[in-house]
C-alpha cells in the first residue's frame, strides 16, 4: 500500500499545496489502491479514472501557476455515494430502475466539491434507493467490511464507509435518512456526520424521504470531516429546504476540541439507549467513552428522552410514506427503465412489469407500507400519528438541551453483523438504526466517531454525539477532544488496526 493512501485528507492537502507531491500522484495512488482491493471489498460501482486524473491535473496546473488553491482540500480524492448526481458518471442509486442513467446535471454538493478542487474518484455502492442498514440491498452486489470481509459495512452508505476503511479514499460523501452515514461509520471505525437538516443542499440527491434525507461528510478523522463539511455546507437557492445561515465554523471547533479541555461542557447520556438488545462489548466501549469525556473535564448528566422508544416505529411509517410518494415517478413512463414495451401490452401492464423488475424486495416492502399508511381511512391512524410522535421526540430533545450541551449514546446497538444474517428478518435489520433515528426525525445534527474495538468480537464500536439544530460546533468540539484522548490512550487511530487487504493485482 502506498504511503499516500494512509495519510489523512489534511496531510495530503498540505503536501499538495507545498508541492511535495502532486495531486495526480495522490489520485493515481488511490486509483491503484482501488484496483488492488476493491475486487474483494466492492465499495465502488463506478470508477471515474480519466475524469479524476483530469481534475487532479487541473489542480496541479493551478498550483504551478502560483494561484491560491481553490480550497483547503484542493487535490484530495473523494468517493461519492451513488445517490448524488454527477455529470459524466452513472447514478444508479443501487437500483436496476436507474441502471446506466447518466444525469444531465450535477448535484449542488458535487458542484461545490469540484469548484473546491476535490478529486472525485467515482461512485460508491449503497442499499437500493438508500433503503437498508447493510448494503446488502444493492442491485449490484454486496459491499464487504474491510475489518472482516464476511461482515456488512453498514448501510445504506456502506460503499462510502468501506472505501474509507479500505484506504481507497481519504474522504467520502454519504447521505443519512435514518442513520445511513452514522451507522456505517460506526461499524467500519470511521467518522460519519449528519448535519442539521437543511444545512447541506439536497439538490441533486435522488429522494427517498424528503423530510429526512441529508447529505454529509465521511472521513477517517474528525478534522477531515470538518474540512469537507465546510466545503459542502451552506445555503442553496435550488433547495427549498436549505437553511439561509452561515456554515458553522466546524474546523475551528475541531482545533479548540483538540486542546483536550471540555471543562464547563455538560454531556447528557440518554438513558433509553442501553439495556436489552445492546451488545455487551458495545456498552463497555460506550461507558469507557463517557468516562473519557469526564476525564477531559465534561460534566456527565443522565437524561431521559421517553419518546425515543417510539422513534423506530414512527420512522418506519414516515419514511416509507414519503418513499411511496417519491418513487411513484419511476413508472416506465416518466423516469427509470421500461420493461415489456413491445407494442402489445397496455401502459398499465408495462408500468407493473417495470416496477416488478426494477425495484428490489426492500424497496417494494417500503412502498407498500407507505402506500397503506397514506391510504384513505388509515392516514390519521398511521402517518398522522407518526408525525405526532415526531413532535414529541423533538420536545424530548428540547427538554434535554435545557440541561446539557450535547447528548451521547452508542451509534449502533451491535457491531457489524455477518453478511446474510438479517436479510430474512427485516425487523432485526431495522434495529440497527435504533440510536440514530431520533436525531433524524428531529432534524438535528449528529455524528459517529470511532470508539474502541469491542471486547466481544474485536470489531469497531462508534460513539454518537448529538447537538441542537445548527450547533454542529458543539459536537465537533467534543468529537475532536475525544478522538485526541482516545488516540493517545490507544497509541494511534483505531483505523490503523484494520487488516491489510492486498488482494488484487
From TrEMBL:
Span of domain Amidase: 25-474
E.C. number: 6.3.5.7
Enzyme class: ligase
Stored InterPro entries: Amidase, Amidase_CS, Amidase_dom, AS_sf, GatA
Gene3D superfamilies: Amidase signature (AS) domain (3.90.1300.10)
Membrane-spanning intervals of the chain: none
Keyword terms: ATP-binding, Ligase, Nucleotide-binding, Protein biosynthesis
One Gene Ontology molecular-function label: asparaginyl-tRNA synthase (glutamine-hydrolyzing) activity
Catalysed transformations (reactions): L-glutamyl-tRNA(Gln) + L-glutamine + ATP + H2O = L-glutaminyl-tRNA(Gln) + L-glutamate + ADP + phosphate + H(+)
Active site (UniProt): 81, 156, 180
Family, as annotated: Belongs to the amidase family. GatA subfamily.
Record's subunit section: Heterotrimer of A, B and C subunits.
Function according to Swiss-Prot or TrEMBL: Allows the formation of correctly charged Gln-tRNA(Gln) through the transamidation of misacylated Glu-tRNA(Gln) in organisms which lack glutaminyl-tRNA synthetase. The reaction takes place in the presence of glutamine and ATP through an activated gamma-phospho-Glu-tRNA(Gln).
Entry protein name: Glutamyl-tRNA(Gln) amidotransferase subunit A
Classification of source organism: Bacteria, Bacillati, Actinomycetota, Actinomycetes, Pseudonocardiales
Gene coding for it: gatA
Amino acid at each position: 500500500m502506498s504511503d499516500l493512501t494512509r495519510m489523512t485528507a489534511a496531510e495530503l492537502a498540505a503536501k499538495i499545496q507545498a508541492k511535495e507531491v502532486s495531486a495526480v500522484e495522490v489520485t493515481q495512488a488511490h486509483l491503484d489502491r482501488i484496483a488492488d482491493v476493491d475486487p474483494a471489498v466492492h465499495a465502488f460501482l463506478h470508477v471515474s479514472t480519466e475524469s479524476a486524473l483530469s481534475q487532479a491535473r487541473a489542480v496541479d496546473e493551478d498550483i504551478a501557476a502560483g494561484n491560491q488553491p481553490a480550497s483547503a482540500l484542493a487535490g484530495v480524492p473523494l468517493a461519492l455515494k451513488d445517490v448524488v448526481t454527477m455529470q459524466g458518471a452513472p447514478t444508479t442509486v443501487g437500483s436496476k430502475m436507474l441502471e446506466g442513467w447518466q444525469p444531465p446535471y450535477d448535484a449542488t454538493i458535487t458542484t461545490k466539491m469540484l469548484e473546491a478542487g476535490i478529486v472525485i474518484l467515482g461512485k460508491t455502492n449503497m442499499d437500493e434507493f438508500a433503503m437498508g442498514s447493510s448494503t446488502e440491498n444493492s442491485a449490484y452486489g454486496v459491499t464487504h467490511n474491510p475489518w472482516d470481509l464476511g461482515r456488512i459495512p453498514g448501510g445504506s452508505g456502506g460503499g462510502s464507509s468501506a472505501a474509507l476503511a479500505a484506504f481507497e479514499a481519504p474522504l467520502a460523501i454519504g447521505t443519512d435518512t435514518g442513520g445511513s452515514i452514522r451507522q456505517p461509520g460506526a461499524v467500519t471505525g470511521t467518522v460519519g456526520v449528519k448535519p442539521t437538516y437543511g444545512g447541506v443542499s439536497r439538490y441533486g440527491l435522488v429522494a427517498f424521504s424528503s423530510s429526512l434525507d441529508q447529505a454529509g461528510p465521511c472521513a477517517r478523522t474528525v478534522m477531515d470531516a470538518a474540512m469537507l463539511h465546510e466545503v459542502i455546507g451552506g445555503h442553496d437557492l435550488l433547495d427549498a429546504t436549505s437553511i439561509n445561515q452561515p456554515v458553522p465554523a466546524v474546523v475551528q471547533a475541531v482545533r479548540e476540541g483538540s486542546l483536550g479541555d471540555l471543562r464547563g461542557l455538560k454531556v447528557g447520556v440518554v438513558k433509553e439507549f442501553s439495556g436489552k438488545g445492546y451488545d455487551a462489548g458495545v456498552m463497555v466501549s460506550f461507558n469507557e467513552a463517557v468516562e473519557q469525556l469526564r476525564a477531559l473535564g465534561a460534566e456527565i448528566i443522565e437524561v431521559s428522552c421517553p419518546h425515543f422508544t417510539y422513534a423506530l416505529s414512527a420512522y418506519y411509517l414516515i419514511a416509507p410514506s414519503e418513499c411511496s410518494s417519491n418513487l411513484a415517478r419511476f413508472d416506465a413512463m416518466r423516469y427509470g427503465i421500461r420493461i415489456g414495451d413491445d407494442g402489445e401490452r397496455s401502459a398499465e401492464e408495462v408500468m407493473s412489469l417495470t416496477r416488478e423488475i426494477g425495484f428490489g424486495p426492500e424497496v417494494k416492502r417500503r412502498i407498500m407500507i407507505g402506500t397503506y399508511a397514506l391510504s384513505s381511512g388509515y392516514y390519521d391512524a398511521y402517518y398522522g400519528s407518526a408525525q405526532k410522535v415526531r413532535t414529541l421526540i423533538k420536545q424530548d430533545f428540547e427538554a434535554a438541551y435545557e440541561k446539557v450541551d450535547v447528548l451521547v449514546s452508542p451509534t449502533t446497538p451491535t457491531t457489524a453483523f455477518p453478511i446474510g444474517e438479517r436479510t430474512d428478518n427485516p425487523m432485526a435489520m431495522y434495529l440497527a438504526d435504533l440510536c440514530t433515528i431520533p436525531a433524524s426525525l428531529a432534524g438535528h445534527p449528529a455524528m459517529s466517531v470511532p470508539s474502541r474495538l469491542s471486547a466481544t468480537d474485536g470489531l469497531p464500536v462508534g460513539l454518537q454525539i448529538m447537538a441542537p439544530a445548527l450547533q454542529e460546533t458543539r459536537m465537533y468540539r467534543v468529537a475532536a477532544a475525544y478522538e485526541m484522548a482516545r488516540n493517545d490512550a490507544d497509541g494511534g487511530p483505531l483505523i490503523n488496526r484494520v487488516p491489510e487487504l492486498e488482494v488484487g493485482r
